[in-house]
Each structure stands twice: as structure tokens, then as C-alpha cells.
Amino acid sequence: MKTKLPLAFSIFGLLFCSITYAQSYIGLQQDHYSGIQGIILNPAAVVDSRQRADINLLSVSAFGGSDYFSTDLGNLLESEDGLVIEDEMEQFPADDNQFFFNVDALGPSFMFNLTPRSSLGVTTRVRAFLNLNNINGTLYENITEDFDGTENFDFNLDNFSGTIHAWSEIGFTYGRILMDDQQNFLKAGITLKYLQGAGSTFVNAPSAMGQYDAATDALMTSGILSYGSTPGFDSDDINFENLSSGFGGDFGLVYEYRPGYAFDTDDHLRSNYQFRIGVSVTDIGSISYADSEIIGYDLTNTISADAFEDSDLETVLEENYAGTEKVTKAKINLPAALHAFVDYKLQNRMFISLQGSLSLVNENKEQANRIINSLSATPRYQSRWFSFYLPLSIRQYDGFSMGAGFRLGPLSVGSGSIISNYISDSSKTTDLYVGLKIPIYR
């Protein structure tokens, strides 16, 4: 039987058991008609929009994967035997494997023009992040397989950490045109967020090591490991009843070069640009949880590997290692990130954009989540009622990804990896997004 680990350390197993996971609106966010989804990436998008107003009903985006395993999703979907994950999975154990997952549900939200030079937006979101950093892949493989292997192995854990965090937020966005001399156009935006944290579970081991003796089924370990949780948080049953408050924010700038200051009658006299450049910083902030329980375990012990069978990590630690408990305030940092893009007009409704996203949170930072660094080039066709995107990306811990997406009036559907997931025999990340809104065009 498979070991039952807490959700914080097993949720990645769901990534290839469902087709409903996604990333944050890849391709859609550079569309002139992205509306609410655009201000999530850069708050400056709220002003000088192609819409008089934009009302989001519900949009869901998520992203997940690992450099520990890859899956042939094409064969998996075409299999006559059903979705047998293990048959299409290849493992790549290393000393510092990474697992990551995030989901973003954008609830009722709206944006509208306040004056010709300023706009307002209000967003509601529910979000969850998982990061498992620098875990020894050989150790993980044996734990999940109940140490069924017959070989001895040694392992080291250097700067091992993991954090799962779930929270809701309401954001208030203000954007304003700072400069408009016909050829040069500059706008800025800021989002202030009120955060409501559902809770977090986290683990950290700066340095630990061990050996497994297959002949005696004994696991010898040494080092220090900390395991903590916020009050009332159950990673297997997340709820938003026992909440803690925090504050966060995003800010961004967008510059457009409009050499001819031409007008597009299909866009109700909205001025054209030859290219535009944007930069933004998102998810500045944190949530603090009072009365959090953190237990420091001395891992110096020799235990039977059978201890992991039918037990979660917390139970194994409690029953086999000496621990020192403390109750303190736990500060969980948001996944702060830097984003930049260049968007170039090829002709009429054809554009190509280059976008990079860089985590501002180090992978060794405790009690924090982070995004996965990526660089995407996205050609797109866009019009008022229809847009199509073809994102080509390089992703940290994965490599090349190719996806597709479209916007058809109120409906948006897409993925940054659906094409590469289907044609590649070694997909390490996967994503999909879907959104429904009421756009009110100019």
C-alpha cells in the first residue's frame, strides 16, 4: 500500500490524475481584451483598456509539476486500459528534486473607467500554493514505495524545505495615464490586497543525512528537521473558517510607442502602438499566524522502514524521533515575483509578445512559496470577439513547452503546455485555464 503523506507533500501526485490543472492565463494576459486577467499580471492594464467595463464571473487557473518525474500524457490519454499513471511515468531521482503546484480561482471581479485617464478594479481570489524544495529523490521514491526496493542507499538533505499555503484575497486596483503626447504613452497601476489566510503547513531541514540497509530494513538518520502548522489547519480538508489577516500588493508600469498615432475604427478609435514594454512586481506581502505549533525533531535514530507503511510523515516523526515543541507566530511570505514583457505589433491584428517571470523568493527560504521561473514567446491574433494564442515557453525544471488558447467573447480557454504535453513522451509540467466573464466593449 502506498504511504499516505500529508497533502503538502503528496498533492503533486494529483497533477497527472486530472485534466483540470492550469497556469496563470498564459497568452491571455497580453491580449488587449484580457480585462481582469490582465491586471493580475500588471495592475497598469486596468487603465486605457479596450472595454468600458469588464465583469469576471469565474476563472480558474492552476499549474503543477516536478523535475522528479515525467509522464507521456499523449499515450496516457490514448490508452485503452484507462488512466494508469504508473505505466507512462519515468522517474529522475536527484539530490535536490523539486515539486510545485498552484491554483488560482478568480471570483466575482470587475473593472471600469473612472475618468478618461484613470480606472478602478476590484478582484476577489482564492489561491493555494505548494512548494517542496531540494528533496532527495531516492529517499522520496523509497518512502512512497514503502521501501520495496532491495538495494542499500545513502541520502543527504541540504536546505530541504516545503510549504503549502492557502488564502483568499480582495484587491483594489487603481490605474492612471501618466504621459500621453501622442507618440509616447505611459501608464501605471497599483493593487492593494487584503489577505485572509486559511493556514499553512511547512517543513524545513537545513542539513540531514541517512542510510538505508536493505538486509535489515533499517533506516539510520541524523540531523535536525522542523515541522510546523498554523492553528486548525488540515491540509486534507482546507476551509476558510479560522482566518488570519495580512496585507499585500502589486504594482506595474506600461510604456507604449505610437509612432503614427493611427486609429483603429474596429476598436472604437483606440490608438495603435508599434510596441509596448511592461514591468510589474506581484505578491508583495505576507500573512502572520499567531499560536502556530512548530516541532523541532532530532533525527538521530535508527528505525524500521515499516514505520512509513500506512502512516503520514507527521505520525512517523512523532512516534520515532525526539521533538521539542514551541508555540509562536509563523509568518508565511507570498510568492513575490518580477514580470516583464515586450509586445510588438506585426500587422493589423497580429502581435507577438515576449514575457519573463522571475521569482523574488529564494528556493531556500523557509515558510514561503515561489513561482517557477519562465520565459514565453507568444504570437497571437486578436479582435474584439475572438483571439487565438500560441505560447512557446522555457520553464525552470522542465524545458520547452508549447500550448494554445483562445478567447471567444465571454469564454477563455487555454494552456501553456497542452501541445507539448500531447506530443512529448516526457512532460514534467502541465497546465490549463478556463474563464467566463461579461465584457462591455467600447
From TrEMBL:
The keyword Signal applies. The keyword Signal applies. Keywords: Signal. Residues 43-410 form the DUF5723 domain. Residues 1-22 form the signal peptide. It comes from the Bacteria. InterPro entries: DUF5723. This is DUF5723 domain-containing protein. The lineage of its organism: Bacteria, Pseudomonadati, Bacteroidota, Flavobacteriia, Flavobacteriales.
